[in-house]
Amino acid sequence: MKKIFLFVFFILSFIGYSQEDILKDTEYIQFKEASIELHISDGYFRYMDVQDEFLKKRPDDYLENQDNYESWIEQNLSKSKFKDLDEALALHKELIDLTAIYEPQILKLFDKYGDLSDKYGEVEFRDVFYNDVQEATKEAFLVQLKNNQK
Known about the structure:
This protein is mainly alpha-helical. The chain starts with a helix and ends with a helix. About 9% of the residues have low confidence.
């Protein structure tokens, strides 16, 4: 019985230490700051809005025709929810431009998330990350919102 108690105590101590270790890790702290900075930036919000608007308005067969979008949308504008060809082309261009800016940043964060997840264990890292970063992102967003209202 004493061995079981010591084993459980050891496991619980290890889990607590691991969470503390993650939160104090310089690599994690830099990752957390970069994640928050990206997710509360005006540009990222615009990217998400443009992506959402484009997905709602584009025809369903866009993915098969995205390489020749301009000529394809001219022929398929009636299948879309764009008000006219100018809107379809402008929104597509803005989406392409914003994707070029934000996709590399997102992929870099995904890679770092994977590295840290491998380092600390997937479940342990995920739990710490989502609790810590979601709360910190929410707080940073509220501060930014308050500052913008002044």
